[in-house]
Design goal:
The protein is mainly beta. It is about 15% helix and about 35% strand. The chain has three helices and 23 strands. The strands form four sheets. Strands 1, 2, 3, 4, 5, 6, 7, 8, 9, 12, 21, 22 and 23 form a 13-stranded mixed beta sheet that branches. A four-stranded antiparallel beta sheet has the order 11-10-16-17, with helices on one face. Strands 14-15-19-18 form a four-stranded antiparallel beta sheet, with no helix packed on it. A hairpin with a 2-residue loop joins strand 2 and strand 3. The longest helix is centred in the N-terminal third of the chain and has 15 residues. It is globular and about 55 Å long.
């Protein structure tokens, strides 16, 4: 469930005093395990508040080096995966806080798979980082923020070209999720943010489509107690059919988002459910709840992000 997913990810490593997590190095690659800073909780409001702090750091386009930008995120408590890496011969173990950015330990290829249960999530580097080729694997180019002078920005920008709610394609344009002349905007993939946040214009389209397609099925209620915007009530919200959500990316990749990654019950009785997407005036963010049970591979030299549904416990 989304309530288990109060986790995070943006990539550089910062040394911290954290409980160690086992890593192994073999075949010219190495493996780590990620555990959440914030354990299982039904306090959605607290997660939204943490996201608000993180978004404040992500909002300005990064004009400094990736290391400085990501260090600021970590030092202000807006990173959220504990990891311990063992590197070298003999292996030297060190604990760190890990978030998605770039040039992690000089490794240009890595993958991770965020578990939706309480188990540790795998992260793989170098030659071990692969998404098994097959019908379910899709890829999209990573894009560069034109206002960022550094060779590699600390955030993974992708080109979100379309959103489909049920059978309705939202009327998005390149400007909806694109960069402004100052480098604001764009879309990043960030496991350091719990929920997903999209540009206000795109969110308004999403909200209208969702309300139209749930009319007569669900009763809208205030989301203020949970700090969400679009919430509904029903005797059993899990039993009510809601419109599907599909994200389209440059290159033809499409992600059919699992229901509980964008719409889930937020109260203990299971009578109130909310859209786990919120509007933002800054950069749009695909957060870690929307990445659950998805194996993502970043090939920074090749400039692509690949993904496929996966049972993360078996990777």
């Amino acid at each position: 469930m989304a309530s288990t997913a109060l986790a995070v990810l943006t990539f550089a490593v910062f040394i911290r005093t954290f409980p160690p997590i086992t890593c192994a190095i073999h075949n010219h690659g190495f493996r780590g395990s990620l555990t959440r800073v914030h354990k299982h909780s039904s306090n959605y409001s607290a997660a939204v508040h943490r996201d608000t702090r993180r978004l404040a750091f992500l909002a300005p386009p990064p004009t400094t080096s990736p290391a400085i930008a990501l260090q600021a995120l970590a030092e202000n408590g807006v990173g959220a995966y504990h990891v311990s890496l063992s590197i070298g011969t003999p292996p030297l173990a060190f604990p760190a806080i890990l978030d998605t950015g770039s040039d992690l330990l000089g490794v240009a290829r890595f993958s991770y798979c965020l578990r939706s249960d309480a188990g540790a999530s795998p992260i793989l580097f170098g030659s071990l980082a692969n998404v098994t080729t097959g019908e379910g694997v899709q890829s999209t180019p990573l894009v560069r923020n034109p206002a960022v002078p550094v060779p590699r920005a600390p955030y993974y920008y992708v080109n979100l070209t379309g959103v489909r709610v049920g059978a309705a394609d939202l009327p998005v344009t390149p400007a909806t999720f694109g960069f402004t002349s100052t480098g604001a905007g764009g879309v990043i993939v960030d496991s350091g943010t719990t929920f997903s946040y999209i540009a206000k214009a795109g969110y308004a389209m999403l909200e209208r489509a969702f309300l139209s397609q749930t009319a007569g099925l669900l009763t809208r209620v205030s989301g203020a107690p949970f700090d969400f915007d679009l919430c509904f009530e029903a005797a059993d919200v899990d039993a009510v059919s809601v419109p599907s959500l599909v994200l389209s990316f440059a290159g033809g990749a499409e992600y059919s988002v699992p229901r509980r990654s964008y719409f889930d019950a937020v109260d203990e009785e299971g009578r109130v459910a909310c859209l786990l997407v919120l509007p933002t005036g800054g950069v749009s963010v695909i957060g870690n709840v929307m990445q659950m049970d998805l194996h993502l591979l970043y090939d920074l030299d090749g400039g692509t992000m690949s993904f496929a549904p996966a049972d993360c416990a078996t990777i």
